[in-house]
Amino acid sequence: MKPMAEGCNDKRGLPMIDLLDAYAAHFKAYIALQLQYRAELVIWLLGMVLEPVIYLVVWSSVARSSGGQVGGFTPAGFAAYYILFTLVNHATFSWIMHEFEFRIRNGEFSPRLLRPIHPIHSDIADNLTYKLLTSAVMLPAAIVLSLVFQPSFATPLWAIPLFVPALALGFLVRFFFEWVLALAAFWTTRVAAINQMYFAALLFFSGRMAPLALLPAPIQAAGNVLPFRWMISFPVELLLGRLSPSAALAGLGIQLLWLLAALAVLHLGWQQALRRYTAVGA
Fold it and tell me: What SS3 string covers 68-99?
């Protein structure tokens, strides 16, 4: 076995035009790859849609049995929340934590480290390409859900332009945060427990299981501090008109702070991870 850190040219950056060409080439190749697995795409997308629909049905039933609303959410309000949550979750999610262990145990990182760009760029390109491809299904699904559940939106006009950076920052925070956690695979060959702990926290603190406004005060307080709300729930709350302009601006600032923290830890963790990596069979 041979250490790969010395062979990694990760410090040699490409000119911006070459980097864009690399992304364009990767987009084309990944679209062709995903079209080979159409059945898998359909199954994955069904899971992405069915889970929030189940939560929607449950909370709508609770609202009807509680006099028409729970915590300020009516059945139509829950419909708006979970339909929008489905789209934001799709726009921000990443699968990288599930792949790192396989890559490292099988020596798949070796050719990635010999490329002239950081391996994270291929993951970003894969992620964006997948979402561009599957949006052709997710958007019609959201329209169908809207026709079935009749959501009620009360979006203020000022929130619409702020939603775009909130969604972009949510994606970046989630992507880089999960890339940082995925680096644990360089230190241990079994990361399933770490992944399960992370996704359990994401379930509670991102507003996925229930809007954070419905959870006990201590969980809401923790959700305001931890990064999970700022990955998914914050853009949803913003577009639903559940935030004041000052709270929205403060939220964008918190998202930016979490992004800078994730990037700083990623830089330090990546350098340490390279020193530990060895190429299997080289």
Answer: CCECCECHHHHHHHHHHHHHHHHHHCCCHHHC
Residue 5 in 3-state DSSP? Answer: coil
For the whole model, what pTM was predicted? 0.84
The 8-class DSSP code of residue 114 comes to T
Residues 6+ apart with CB under 8 A from 202: 208, 228, 231
Which pLDDT does position 132 carry in this prediction? 84
Rounded average pLDDT over 241-267 = 96
Backbone angles phi, psi at 2, to 5 degrees: -130, 130
With b meaning 16 or more CB within 10 Å and e meaning fewer, what string describes 96-124? Answer: bbeebbebbeebebbebbeeebbbbbbbb
Q: For the chain, what is the largest distance between any 2 Cα atoms, rounded to a whole number of angstroms? A: 67
CB 109, CB 249: distance < 8 Å: no
State the burial class of residue 1 (Cβ atoms within 10 Å of its Cβ: 0-12, 13-18, 19+).
Answer: exposed
With 0-12 / 13-18 / 19 or more C-beta atoms within 10 angstroms meaning exposed / middle / buried, residue 38 is: exposed
Helices (H), 157-244: 159-182, 192-205, 217-225, 228, 234-239
Q: Which residue has the tokens 């760009």?
A: 117
In this prediction, residue 198 carries a pLDDT of: 93
